[in-house]
Amino acid sequence: MLQCARDAGAGAFGAFEAFEARIKAVRGMLRNGKYKPAGRAKPSSEYLFAAALDDSFPRVNPFVDAVNLASLKYMYPMSIFDADKAGHALLCRLGAPGEHYVFNSSGQEIDLEDLVCLCALAPAFAAESAAKERAPDAAGSAAAGGRPPPGPASQLAQTFGEIAAGYSTQGPASQMVQSFGEIEAGRPPASHSETSQPEVQPQSRPIANPVRDSMATKLFEGARNALIVVYAPGGPYEAEGRDLGAAARDLATWCGRACERTAIKVHSLS
């Protein structure tokens, strides 16, 4: 896998063209409002590509390593996090003005405004700050809402119970991919270049995005439940649908070897 990435970086016939097309599509997916996916704000898959080229590909733990390899193989940014720390309900939305979180052990923060974010509606890690959240200031109130990414807001909330229902099994799960008829074949999400009135959203805390994930829910040794998110752009069914399905199968197979149960769920936000 690393050699394939190096071949693409070296301009091997056909390899770089495929990587370049996916990079362009993913950046288009993240180009919303003020957010520009370039430089330090580029998708995590591009960081992994660069690391593969200079022989500094990260090694963390078997699960994170599997996700990083899948991200490199398909050039989709991906997140993996501790599902127990995140709580039991998630929301996908754009980051609000002034919203940020710490993404590494050095305390560095990422600005989340207009970045596609996965948020926890009832995060377990937030219990110690509940008192502050009950009396937020004006800026905190704005950050708690955010605005939804393109697509029907009613489709964005997802509970872990719904993810597991009907698509779970014991052991490796190479055959468990949900019907990709749910992926809308057509246009990528529209860009939020214009100013619009934000929709009212449930209070939520960002925990992951296609660039940097939060330290609050990172997957460390001893975790019992993990959730992997693949951020894939909208597009023709034969292109994005096929690769998203292959990525899901690889992740289920690689991670399933060390799991009691794996499950796959696909949502389209187009």
Report on this structure:
The chain has 270 residues and is an alpha+beta fold. It has a domain at 76-263. It is 33% helix and 14% strand. It is built from nine helices and ten strands. The two termini are 30 Å apart.
Task: Report the strand count.
Answer: 10
Helical percent range?
25-40%
Uncertain spans, ≥5 residues at pLDDT below 50?
Answer: 135-145, 150-198
H/E series: HHHHEHEEEEHHEHEEEHE
Q: Evaluate the radius of gyration.
A: 18 Å
For the largest beta-sheet, the strand count, sense and barrel status come to: 4 strands, antiparallel
Strand fraction: 5-15%
- Name the average pLDDT: 74
Strand line-up of the largest beta sheet: 6-2-5-8
List the helices and strands and how they pair.
Blueprint: H1 2-9, H2 15-30, H3 44-53, H4 62-74, E1 78-82, H5 83-86, E2 89-94, E3 100-102, E4 109-111, E5 116-120, H6 130-134, H7 138-145, E6 158-159, H8 160-164, E7 168-170, E8 205-208, E9 226-230, H9 237-256, E10 261-263
Helix pairs in contact: 1-2, 4-9
